[in-house]
Design brief:
six-stranded mixed sheet; Rossmann fold; elongated; 18 strands
Length: 1221
């Protein structure tokens, strides 16, 4: 509760005060029960006609406990009014405690979500290198839900229970300390059991969160890499990996429930056993005239009320322990203050800088790779306005220079100076706001183009935004869009092509008018046309600014003022292009390597008399703005809320649109015997309260007996209490344990089935907003655990309550149907109250879930793009945006609290009005001799304990609809059909030889049916032939690869004969060996260590692997973050080769690499192509000149095809592409 403000503290104090008042009222009524017990015993003895005449004629005097009928009615009326007064107090206190704590909890959880989100955005990059963003998102959803469940109204309920216990014991000891002492003799055992349970539950909850966090991280990694998983047909393997993590989390949870079942069983069992002893000892005190029957009832009633309160609170203790376990994980992140703190106001603020940059003897290594020194005494100086290019092999430290300048990391030693000021002495936010960054893969956020550009400068005017867009050559294409600058770019900018995204990123960097511009491979991933336009924009941007360029395409940095060649973390040579060429050193070698096979381009440039072609005068057909393959998600411009495939948003789904499917849920419990055992145990547990009521009411009859009958009745009832203790202990322990095991099994199965069904869907599904990986990851983390609100201990409690209700109705109708008719009217009121509460909460909870999900989606987007977010200093903006999305959910949460508070108060207070009615009407029936006093007490206690049980059940109804909605969402996804199932054994299994044919293929992505990507494509590739696909962005090249991989029509057997290497390979957070083995896991054949080494050698990565300390057992990090680009690419090639594919697909496999890495990887690819059918997508035309056939794709068809020489001679599209390079 550290984030409770003054208002929240007042609410909690008022709520605790109300809960204490509520707790005191419950045992207070035992005084009235005791007084009435004496009255009814006296009435049975003296008021009835026969007893009164016998007394008058035989005794001729009145005993001390004699009462008249008038006095009898007078006392009953007075006590009935007392119960009405208590009912009013109970309603007020219950309403107050529930509403205040639910409101305070909603306020604090809302703040906590914001603070947690803000603190995660605060952490430095070194911390993120060791963290899993999927686990961080899981904490924001699953852990916060656990905290809300455990820290809301359940805390005052627990306070109320302990107050009731203390007040009950005080009343009991004041009434008869001897009898009370005997009854509570088992109390220490109960308290020790509860304390041990609470301690172990909290420890287990922490371990459980860690285990499930690992599972969440696996799910996040796999779903974010769904295309890689589908390409290698490893769905079965990753499902097994996910299942193992789920089982470990489940086992950690079950340990907690074993102790809970023991604590609950011991508590109830000892309680009933001590009541058996209490009956025997109370009768002994009665015979010695040391206590009255009414006092015995007062002691029993006061202590039983407290004991039942504690018994009912044990499940609450479990949820509170869960909340503390979740809080421990959350606060560990909140309390972590990074060494590089972007929120700190300390440090020198940069008002105006000239742009001088100096690295002075800088040493650096990444914390994830402490044994690998990335920079080793780096020294260089950049003067204001200079354009400096960093070149060198992959892993030489070029991008690390950018990271250190942005102060994502601090050097181990040495200094980095800007304008002669150490950047460690500068304010982090001020430093980053003065640096403009454009990276190789620009990250755009899911907002409008204008907002994305404004992220570079929050104070930018519309004029400044448009000026920056013009400088970035982006203004024209933006204006040509229907919504212009208000166009939504989609998640990660998927609605735009690569060149369009890059130009918006440049505009974003320029809008703040930075004096220092950092360009990290800003054009390497673009096709020729896009590169030309973006390079022109960069030339504009660099004018008058200190610029550092990290480049692999050396032609783009030829005119730099200074070129620094790096090797092993040091600058080995520097100078202008001409100077370095004369040195014939590292730079000369890089240029020579990159110029290889580039004679044709040189010849064409010579034919142009050395004139540089104007990029803006290219043929119009190259300026058609088309949407890239990745933009197949549905366009979301101007929309509010995401839409499902049936054109209905989750926010708009009403209760009638969703079928609950309870039996579908129960089918997830694979152990049917366990389910049957749970139901039987719960039913038996439901017997214990009516049985206790029967025994408790029967005690009154003992005191109407005398002599041997009295002694026999005492022994009989004491024995029955002991028997009840044994049966109840075994039944409750079994019910809690089996229901918990069943629930955890169902949660595991539901998560597993969801995950499995996600992986069985065609790839096009993940292009839709409703089924984006971020959304599915959040659902997988948040919704399955909420089935506890519907099944498990809560469902068991409903079975127990239902059994109790049915048996109680049987009892009250059997022993006094007339009185039962008067009381039964209260039961529909209780049921109606709970039903009304459920209906109101369900409709509002749907809105709350939608709002919370939108906030979680934003958080996931930010955490996955943390580097971009921190470089732009967007933490405060994103936290405010997150808070705005949460505000809707916050209002609905508070509304839920008010609804719950009223319903809880109504059901709790109704019991006391029932008592008043029972005593008043019962008095009449006893006088008329329709029922006896013992029978009335049996009826009364049956109704009372049943009402208490139903009242306690309302706590679980609070979350029932939350679980109901979550189950509906989950079951909808579990039963979602796929067009072609990768797990199916149906379909042909031909022997793949390598011949590929496309015959009149037309294709459009499902999310964009009106936009044809392929328009009657005809293409034939013979076995062993190498085909290169070239053409502009959006022409359909990558679509051909996607169709061949059967991403949209998946076929397991075809995929097993394909090997794929993409531009940005996805590696998994396992070892190098396991990543290579991943390629052959679906082939169902044993992979030896020699196979792995052979594949590594074929991809030119073996020597590097054996040179690092842990060799093949080296962890590659999240998405391969611990390896350089060239190293990742070669591991990906080894992964493709180990499956010995007949067909090899290379999608821009070398475009993002530096010259040296490209050479090594290209050699590996040339070797890999031997004897295989190969399709290459390439922007660097020099890499595909030796292809057997080159096909130029334009507007979804093959415009030209032939060899390099044949196409060049045509002077058509291919010739234009060569000329532009």
């Amino acid at each position: 509760y550290r984030y409770a403000d003054f208002k929240d503290l007042i609410l909690m104090i008022v709520g605790l005060t109300a809960s204490v008042c509520h707790g005191i009222m419950l045992p207070t009524m035992s005084l009235f029960f005791g007084g009435l017990a004496n009255v009814f015993i006296s009435q049975q003895k003296y008021v009835s006609g026969y007893s009164f005449l016998k007394l008058f004629f035989n005794l001729r005097k009145f005993p001390p406990d004699f009462i008249t009928e008038h006095y009898f009615y007078d006392i009953v009326d007075r006590y009935s009014l007392y119960f009405v007064y208590i009912g009013i107090v109970m309603f007020t206190s219950a309403l107050t405690q529930a509403c205040t704590w639910e409101t305070a909890c909603a306020n604090q959880i809302c703040k906590l979500r914001q603070i947690y989100f803000a603190q995660t955005l605060r952490q430095d990059l070194a911390w993120y290198d060791e963290s899993d963003d999927g686990d961080l998102t899981s904490k924001l959803t699953d852990d916060m839900e656990r905290m809300r469940d455990g820290l809301g109204s359940k805390v005052p309920l627990l306070t109320q229970a302990f107050t009731t216990l203390i007040a009950g014991m005080v009343i009991g000891f004041i009434t008869s300390w001897r009898l009370s002492l005997v009854i509570v003799a088992g109390g220490p055992v109960i308290l020790v059991a509860s304390a041990v349970n609470a301690k172990i539950s909290r420890e287990s909850a922490i371990r459980e969160q860690v285990r499930y966090g690992i599972a969440g991280g696996i799910a996040s990694e796999i779903l974010n890499s769904i295309r890689t998983v589908a390409a290698f047909s490893t769905q079965t393997v990753v499902i097994k990996r996910f299942e193992v993590a789920l089982i470990e989390g489940k086992n950690a949870t079950l340990k907690r429930y074993r102790y809970l079942s023991g604590a609950l069983g011991i508590s109830i069992g000892f309680l009933y056993f001590m009541y058996g002893i209490g009956v025997w000892y109370g009768s002994h005190l009665f015979l010695n005239d040391e206590i009255t029957p009414g006092q015995i009832f007062t002691v029993f009633m006061s202590i039983i009320t407290g004991a039942f309160g504690i018994g009912n609170s044990l499940p609450l203790l479990t949820e509170i322990s869960n909340a503390f376990g979740a809080a421990s994980n959350v606060f560990s992140i909140i309390d972590n203050v990074p060494s590089i703190d972007p929120y700190s106001n300390e440090g020198q603020a940069l008002e105006k800088i000239d742009g001088k940059i100096e690295f002075n003897n800088v040493y650096f290594c990444y914390s994830s790779r402490p044994n690998v020194m990335v920079l080793s005494g780096l020294d260089f100086v950049i003067q204001p306005g200079q354009i400096v290019a960093l070149v060198g092999a992959s892993g030489s430290g070029k991008s690390t220079v950018i990271n250190l300048l942005l102060r994502f990391y601090d050097p181990l030693c040495g200094k980095i100076l800007i304008d002669n000021v150490n950047i460690k002495d500068m304010n982090v936010g001020s430093l980053r706001r003065n640096l403009g960054v454009v990276s190789q893969e620009p990250v755009l956020f899911d907002v409008t183009i204008e907002e994305n550009i404004r992220f570079g400068n929050a104070d930018a005017t519309d004029f400044e935004i448009r000026t920056a867009a013009k400088l970035a050559n982006a203004d024209d294409f933006i204006r040509n869009m229907p919504l212009g600058y208000n166009t939504m770019v989609g998640e990660r900018g998927v609605q735009l092509s690569g060149g369009q995204k890059q130009r918006i990123a440049i505009a974003r960097a320029l809008v703040s008018n930075p004096k220092i511009l950092l360009l990290d491979e800003a054009t390497s991933a673009l096709d020729s046309r896009s590169e030309a336009i973006v390079q022109a924009a960069l030339d504009n941007a660099m004018s008058g600014r200190t610029t550092i360029i990290v480049a692999h395409r050396l032609s783009t940095i030829k005119n730099a003022n200074l070129i620094c060649a790096m090797k092993k973390g040091r600058i080995v040579e520097s100078g202008t292009h001409d100077e370095l060429m004369q040195l014939k050193g590292v730079y000369y070698s890089l240029v020579l390597t990159q110029s290889k096979n580039g004679d044709d381009a040189n010849m064409i440039r010579h034919e142009l008399n050395g004139e540089n072609p104007s990029y803006l005068e290219l043929p119009l057909k190259y300026f058609l703005y088309s949407v890239r393959r990745k933009s197949s998600r549905r366009k979301s411009t101007g929309s509010k809320g995401t839409k499902t495939s049936d054109n209905k948003s989750f926010e708009e789904v009403e209760a009638e649109d969703l079928k609950f499917g309870y039996f579908d849920l129960l089918r997830l419990n694979t152990d049917k015997c366990l389910l049957v055992a749970t139901i039987i145990a719960c039913i038996i547990s439901g017997f214990h309260i009516p049985s206790f009521a029967m025994l408790y009411g029967g005690i009154l009859k003992i005191f109407l007996l005398t002599g041997d009958d009295f002694y026999s009745a005492v022994i009989f009832y004491s024995g029955l209490f002991c028997l009840l203790a044994l049966v109840s202990t075994l039944a409750l322990m079994t019910a809690v344990l089996t229901s918990s095991i069943g629930t955890e099994n169902m949660i595991k199965e539901l998560r597993l089935n969801l995950f499995k069904n996600f992986l069985s869907q065609e790839i096009s599904l993940f292009d839709e907003d409703d089924y984006s990986p971020i959304r599915l990851i959040n659902l997988l983390s948040r919704d399955p655990p909420l089935i506890k609100c519907v099944v498990g201990m809560r469902a068991g409690y409903i079975i127990v309550s239902t059994t109790t209700l049915v048996l109680s109705l049987v009892i009250i109708f059997y022993f006094g149907w007339r009185l039962a008719l008067a009381l039964v009217v209260f039961i529909p009121l209780l049921v109606y109250g709970n039903w009304k509460q459920g209906k109101m909460r369900f409709s509002s909870f749907i809105k709350e879930s939608a709002a919370t999900e939108q906030a979680a989606k934003l958080a996931s987007e930010c955490l996955q793009n943390i580097k971009t977010l921190q470089s732009l200093c967007l933490q405060e903006h994103m936290v405010n945006l997150f808070a705005d999305k949460l505000s809707i959910a916050h209002k609905d949460e508070k509304k839920h609290g008010y609804i719950y508070g009223f319903t809880y108060a109504f059901s709790t207070s109704l019991v006391f009005f029932m008592y008043a009615c029972t005593f008043r009407v019962g008095a009449i029936f006893i006088s008329e001799e329709y029922i006896t006093a013992p029978d009335m007490y049996r009826i009364l206690f049956s109704v009372a304990f049943t009402a208490t049980t139903i009242g306690a059940a309302t706590v679980f109804f609070l979350d029932f609809n939350k679980g109901k909605l979550s189950i509906q969402n989950c079951l909808k996804l579990v039963h979602m059909k796929t067009k072609l199932d990768p797990f199916s054994n149906e379909g042909l299994r031909p022997e793949i030889k390598g011949k590929i044919q496309f015959k009149d293929v037309w294709f459009s992505y499902p999310a964009r049916r009106n936009q044809k990507i392929l328009r009657g494509l005809d293409l034939t590739i013979e076995p062993g032939q190498t085909l290169a696909l070239v053409g502009g962005s959006g022409s359909g090249k990558s679509t051909i690869i996607s169709l061949l991989e059967r991403f949209y029509l998946p076929d397991e057997e075809v995929l097993n004969n394909l090997g794929i290497v993409t531009q940005e390979p996805t590696l998994f957070n396992t070892t190098i060996k396991e990543n290579i083995e991943y390629g052959a896991l679906s082939l169902e054949q044993k992979i030896t260590e020699q196979d792995v080494i052979q594949a590594a050698k074929a991809s030119n990565i073996h020597e590097f692997i054996v040179s690092i300390p842990q060799g093949y057992e080296t962890k590659v990090g999240d998405r391969g973050s611990k390896l350089s680009g060239g190293q990742k690419q070669r591991v990906a090639i080894a992964r493709a080769l180990i499956r010995n594919p007949k067909i090899l697909l290379l999608d821009e496999a070398t475009s993002a690499l530096d010259t040296e890495s490209e050479k090594i990887v290209q050699e590996a690819l040339d070797k890999a192509r031997e004897g295989r059918t190969c399709i290459i997508i390439a922007h660097r035309l020099s890499t595909i000149q030796n292809a057997d056939k080159i096909a130029v794709i334009h507007n979804g068809i093959v415009e030209e095809q032939g060899t390099h020489e044949e196409l060049k001679a045509m002077g058509g599209l291919y010739y234009d592409l060569i000329k532009n390079q």
